[in-house]
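Can't paste images in this forum, so I'm doing it all in text. The chain is below; anyone willing to post the predicted C-alpha cells underneath?
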Amino acid sequence: MDQLIYMDNAATSFPKPKIVYDFMHEFYQKHGVNPGRSGYDMTLETEEIIFNTRKMLTEFFNGTDPNRLTFSYNASDSLNNIIQGMVEKGDHVITSNVEHNSVLRPLYHLEQAGTIEVTYIPFNEKGYIDPEDVKTNIKKNTKMVILNHCSNVIGTIQPVKDIGQICRDQGVAFAVDASQTAGALKIDVQEMNIDLLAFTGHKCLMGPTGIGGSYVTEDVPIKSSRYGGTGVRSAYRYHLEEFPYRLECGTLNIVGVAGLHAGQKWIQEKGLKNLHDKEIELWDKLRKALQAIDGVKTYCAESAENHNAVLSFNIDGWEAGDVGTMLDVDYNIACRTGLQCAPLVHEQLGTMDIHGTVRLSLGAFNTEEHVDTAIDAVKEIAEIKR
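Text version of the structure:
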C-alpha cells in the first residue's frame, strides 16, 4: 500500500517531530514520578520540566507569570474551566457561529439551565466576525466574549486584537479558543488584549493528545470549578486560590507536558513563521486548483490572507462522507468529513442538510507531492458525476 497522505491536521497533527517521541520516551523512563509531592531528586527534576514548560509557553504567548499558565487535558477541558469559572447566574456571554462545540456545548448547557444568556454573532460572507457586531451586542450584564481565533472548518483567522480592544474598553473579559492557532501563529496576549487563552497540545504545538492548558492574565476573576489534591498545604480544607492550583488538581499528565516541552522546542528551532508560510503556500496551491475544477465548491477561501491551512469543499452530486471514503480507500488520503464539531458554521454555510463538507487540513509534514495527489484525486472524483 502507498504511504498514507495525512491531511487531517486540524484534528491532530501527525506525525509528530521525532524529538517529541524520543523525549517523551526518555523522560517517562527517568522521571515518571509524581511532581511536587516529595523532596527527592527525581520528583524535583520532574517538577523542573513542568515549570520550564510553563515558562516556555508563557513566553511564547507573551504572558507575564508562568504560574498563570495552567495545564489541562485539552482545549475543551480548559474552555470548560474558563466558562464555568467566569460566569454566574444572570450573566450575558457573546460568542459566534464559527465556534467549535468545545465552546458551544458548555454555553448551551448553562443557557438551557437558565444560568446565562448567550448571543451568537454570525460571520460575514468571507468567514470573519465583524468587531462592530460584537460591540453593538455588549450589554450591561455582558460578562465575557469568547471566540475562536481560527475556525476549524473554514480556516478564517478572526480579528481578535480589534475585538479584544473593544472588550477592554467596555470592561468585558475576552476569552480566546486558540486550538487551531497555538503553535501556528504568533499569539501575544498583551497586544491582542486577551484575558483568557485556551490551547491544546496535540495540534500545532506538536505535542501528544491528552494535554492542553490555558493562560489567564492578572486580575481576571476566574473561580475554581474543580477541587482536589495539589500536593501542597494538604491540611487546608479548601482548594487553593493561588495559581497554578486554582485551575489544576490532581496529578498532571507529566508525559504529556514533556511532549509539549519537546514540541515547543522544535517549533522554536524551525521558526513559527517559516512553518506557517510553508503550510499556507501549499494551501493556496490546493485552493486555487480545487476552485478551477468544475463541480467543486470551496467555502470562505478567497485569499491566503488571514487564513490557516484548512480548506473545506464539496463536489456536486456527492455526499461529503462518500468523497472522504473515496479519498481514503482509492487514494490513501486521510481527511475529515461531516460537521467537524462546529454545527453553527454549517448552518450558516447551508451545508447542514448535505451533511457538512470535506475538509483537508495541511500540516508541517505535508509536501507539494501530497497536494498534487489530492488535486488529482478530487479532479477524478468530480469527473465521475459529469
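The domain at 5-16+271-384 is CATH 3.90.1150.10 (Aspartate Aminotransferase, domain 1). The radius of gyration is 21 Å.
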